[in-house]
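Handout, tutorial session.
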Amino acid sequence: MSDLEVRQLRYFVAVAEELHFGRAAARLGMAQPPLSRTIRDIERQLGVALFERTTRQVNLTAAGEVLLRDARTALEAVTAAAHRARQAGSGSPRLRVALKADVDGGLLPQILGTYGADEASLPPELVLGGFGEQPQALRDGLADVGLVLCPFDSRGLDSEPLLTEPVLVALAAADPLAARARLCLDDLADRKLPDGSPAVHGRPVEHTPQPGTTRPASNLSEIFSLVETGSIVFFAPASVARRYPRPGIAYRPVSDLPDATLAVAWPHDARSPAVAAFVRAACTVASAQHLQAEPVAPSTTT
């Protein structure tokens, strides 16, 4: 049996994720017949069926499920290898730090200062992304280390927790719920999050669009503008609420919403002294800060 090619794995993953040959072909920018032939070639090479096909639907077999898991890992490794090789070969190596703007617990300036004093440090480059994008940036080799909110997809990554703080709900100051000192998720049954999902589900850091919804607000400025109009509510760590007091927004604690933990994360196989220096700096700063969330008073802003 010959080894599978990267191209074959990409084709297989597209079909496995779409479970529709037409949509997978469109996603890959190719015609459907050659895609179908490639999948049949893969099945012949492996000697197993990867899909159960009927006139109405396409489903993965047990073998297909296993290949999908491992193919994703293999493709991530190939992508990461290319990005890391490109970075290593550049004339000015840097430490690429992935994070969501303002979601750093207020620690980033101190971390960078402490890190910069380490003899193993490299010039830092901030790789900004949306909520929850940092772990994939690390796996893809687009960043060397990251500040992430837990829980997160930790495949292929190591991490150390830095601080834990309450998650608050941001709602319009004119909202009747703003008159309460404390809320629970059931109180938010009729409210929506920025991604269009029900707030009662309590998913504070996921902001990918849900099926049938429009593009979610992409930054805090957009989110806060929508919150002020009463269009949405927003779950935010207490440090974000402290950083962005606005007269049109009320921040309230939610009794049954889990706390948010900020962690520093890096790839399992990282061997860079600069990554180790950043992790040391982050843990040192977090330990010295002893940040604890403060009680939220029932005022308009916190």
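The second record follows below. Compare its token runs with those of the first.
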Amino acid sequence: MPPPPSQAGHRAHAGQTRFAMYAPEFAADPSRFYTQMRDQHGTLAPVYLDPDVPATLVIGYQTAVRILHDPVRFPADPRVWQQGVPAHCPVLPMLEHRPNALRNSGPAHARYRAANTSALDHVRQHELQAMVERIAIPLINEMCEVGHADLLTQYAQPLAFQVLNAILGCPPEIGQRVALGMAAIFEGVNAEAGNAMLSEALSELVDLKRRHPGMDVTTGLLSHPTQLNELELIHQLVTLYGAGIEPEQNVIANTLLLIVSDERYSGDVLRGSLSVRDALDELLFVDPPLANFCVSYPPRPVEIDGVVLPAHQPVVISMAACNNDPAVISDQRAGNRSHLTWSAGPHGCPAQPLAYLIAQVAIEQILDALPEMELAVPADHLTYRPGPFHRSLTGLPVRFPPSPRLTLT
């Protein structure tokens, strides 16, 4: 019988201080902490995801690749770990077992992933591009004549939210509760209540689609030959919303920040020598929107890079730190997609072509409409929401010459 997770948590880094990833100081400057971790611990750093949740953060690129391709020693099933975690733990909703592909291994993972990839395959990229443009133009029209805006709250957030609702066939009133519940889970603030709100809203969506099927991903999940039950359907949607709102709005906002604040891009993208896709690739390397995730739970003590990791304790991949590992970092990011932002191995994100397309079209639309926009505050005055997992601005204020409204073609 393995020791409870709370007792097994210090075997890998006995007597060493753990980094508090939940702290506001970490959110303000994670790169500084990754450097300290690397200097003190090499590729594996002892961290706290919450004051009562010890974990190991993987900050070496090659080490992360080995772990992500080794589901036997590093499975994604957290059920033994969570036995020792109180229900009110703020990071539990992000880490707990769910009947979906993200939190299972072996045949169960294969079954859930098959249903998800099949449903996502029904999304046609040319139709998605037109959808993003239709959603982007009214959002741009709400700000273009004013001369200033918050690109996070007025553009990236509502665009990601509306696009995903359309893909999943979700009415706005249900989707709004989904978005609120998901935000609480990512931030770890009222996460237990947010988790309950999320499940209730998605149950309503499943019931709606049973009664009124459509040409959408939720209907595709309902009709898949795996015959997912009610609970399984809800938790496939949890995964899709978790990947489709928070990370998507962050990749749009963070890439826009890169373009308007970094002279290499603000000039070159607008002149055409670099593309929005190049800026996206750079952003996904240097500042991925989901910075630390891809969690596994070794079922027994396992040695890697000379460190024995304890059984049943979270092992978290830092995509942000691994992408910027000095051992593999390159000055050439444009067109380079070797980053781990979409994970790798059996749990690699199946929706990445869609996520890329949504972000690219959204960014191109607003750059075309407001090419002279610039930050309204110095870049070092921008702030980030706390939380161990995401890299999320609290706002992205910009100013620009007022422009006429756009028309839908």
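Points raised in discussion: The chain has one domain: 5-399.
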